[in-house]
Design goal:
- With 450 residues, this protein is α/β, with parallel strands linked by helices.
- It contains 18 helices and twelve strands.
- The chain has two domains: 217 residues, Type I PLP-dependent aspartate aminotransferase-like (Major domain) (Aspartate Aminotransferase, domain 2, 3-Layer(aba) Sandwich); 112 residues, Aspartate Aminotransferase, domain 1, CATH 3.90.1150.
- It is 44% helix and 12% strand.
- The strands form three sheets. The protein has a seven-stranded mixed sheet with strand order 2-8-7-6-5-3-4, with helices on both faces. A three-stranded antiparallel sheet has the order 9-12-11.
- Helix 5 runs antiparallel to helix 6 and helix 15 runs parallel beside helix 18.
- The protein is globular.
- The structure holds pyridoxal-5'-phosphate (PLP).
- The site of pyridoxal-5'-phosphate has 12 residues, from helix 7.
- Pyridoxal-5'-phosphate binds next to helix 7.
């Protein structure tokens, strides 16, 4: 068996990327990481209260994020918010790159990326040879759908709540290949997970489907879909399944080996709080040979990992900064982070439901780090038609008049606020939201305009 030391003697570089595969295949005992050329931040000394509990909320926001203090930022789900120390690490990588660009790109980058990939694979419980680092979920989904061996008439199943850009990609693929898109409607309010599994089963039984696309946490209606059961249904029928988990990494515990989808995509720059431009794509070993990266470069023909590792010359610092992101998560522990998020989301939804006299479109335990809460009747009465434009009007009023950043969604004839909860949020922000929505509807009631 070769050791990392033997391999390190060989050159890497964008033109000879095959060693990547070998380094990823080494066992943890055999693998020796490439040295990181500067010190990474340490999180051994985190601020705690007198009971030894971590100080989440405002304290976390000012210490670890660049978010404006004055902004009530309840839309982490849109573009995430990057950890300050991870941005500093990314900056260090950029500066280091420029000290000797050839040394960095040709000799060091590949083994450095292997190291990050191995850590990410451990975080999501899969083999590092089944995971590649990409720049965003969009790249991952494009790679999978463009590579799929479509024939005219093949059916691809999506849902009404599939991410908008992915719906467009599916339409494009269908136009190009003659495949057919069948869109399944999930209706809200939804009573429970079984309802969703049953809808999928009905469609799988009704027609011959080649690929199902499941959003683990859909953007517009962020209930956590029962992907475990849904993937199992597909696998039992030998239907391929792509899970778009753009929102899942960090938000939910992920065990990809156990979940066993054909393809799984997730962003690091949303709930994991990495610098922008970091995501993962998992592909099950038996279908890897089929999957080509959305951008073809030097790695073509050198194996799954090597094909994805180099997407042309670009800034790889967001990927390399994942070390700091993972160090942060390990120091706080994913369970403590998610416990805070879940409690905050529960408290926030309780508060808003009480404040507005409304409801959630699904049981609370179906939501992850985001929830939809129906807006009060008084808001609905402001509009003749409940549509995207009504939602936008309320969203803009919240932003411009109250400095609250939160999306309003129009879903099957009702308006909802989609709140996010992360470690930088705290309950008084949702109190402010509750009052602002009532103020907007009160203002409309008095003057006839919002
Ligand atoms: C479900 C889902 N898929 C894909 C994406 C695209 O992510 P990105 O723009 O980082 O590629 C998003 C973004 O919000 C999303 O919510």
């Amino acid at each position: 068996m070769k050791s990392t030391k033997d391999m390190a003697k060989r050159d890497f570089g964008s033109f000879h990327a095959s060693n990547v595969q070998e380094l990823l295949s080494l066992s943890n005992e055999e693998y020796v990481p490439h040295q990181i050329p500067f010190a990474l931040p340490s999180f051994s000394d985190l601020d705690k209260d007198s009971n030894g509990e971590l100080l989440f909320g405002r304290q976390m926001k000012s210490t670890f994020f660049l978010l404006e203090e004055s902004c009530c930022f309840l839309n982490h789900g849109a573009f995430g918010a990057s950890l300050k120390p991870a941005l500093e690490t990314a900056r260090k990588w950029q500066l280091y790159t420029e000290e000797q660009p050839l040394r960095f790109y040709d000799r060091e980058l590949m083994p450095l990326l292997v190291h990050v990939c191995r850590r990410m694979a451990a975080f999501v419980s899969c083999s590092p040879t089944d995971l590649v680092l990409v720049n965003n979920a969009t790249f991952g989904v494009n790679s999978v759908l463009n590579s799929f061996p479509w024939s005219a008439g093949d059916v691809i199943l999506t849902f009404n709540i599939t991410y908008g850009a992915v719906k467009k990609l599916v339409k494009h693929i269908c136009l190009k290949t003659g495949a057919i898109n069948r869109e399944v409607e999930l209706k809200f309010p939804v009573q429970g997970r079984k309802e969703i599994v049953d809808v999928l089963r009905t469609h799988l039984d009704a027609c011959d489907i080649k690929l199902v696309v499941i959003d683990h946490i859909p953007s517009n209606a962020p209930v956590v879909l029962p992907v475990r059961e849904m993937v199992q249904l597909c696998r039992q029928r030998q239907v391929r399944v792509l899970v778009d988990g753009a929102h899942a990494l960090g938000a939910l515990p992920l065990d990809l080996t156990d979940l066993d989808p054909d393809y799984y995509v997730s962003n690091c720059h949303k709930w994991l709080c990495s610098p922008k431009g970091a995501a993962i794509l998992y592909v099950r070993p038996d279908v890897q040979a089929e999957v080509r990266p959305a951008v073809i470069s030097h790695g073509l023909g050198s194996g799954f990992s090597s094909e994805f590792v180099w997407a042309g010359l670009h800034d790889y610092s967001p990927l390399l900064a994942l070390h700091t992101v993972l160090d942060f998560w390990e120091a706080l522990t994913p369970s403590a982070i998610r416990k805070y998020i879940q409690q905050l989301l529960k408290d926030a939804t309780d508060l808003l439901i009480k404040c507005w006299g409304t409801r959630l479109p699904a049981p609370l335990d179906m939501f992850g780090p985001m929830a939809l809460v129906e807006l009060p009747e008084s808001i609905h009465q402001m509009f003749n038609t409940i549509d995207y434009s009504a939602a936008e009007t309320v969203q803009n009023a919240l932003y411009h008049d109250f400095n609250i950043e939160v999306p309003i969604k129009s879903l099957q004839g009702r308006l909802y606020v989609r709140i996010s909860a992360h470690i930088h949020n705290q309950l008084d922000e949702y109190e402010k939201l509750g009052g602002a929505v009532l103020a907007i509807s009160g203002r409309a009631g008095n003057s006839g305009v919002p």
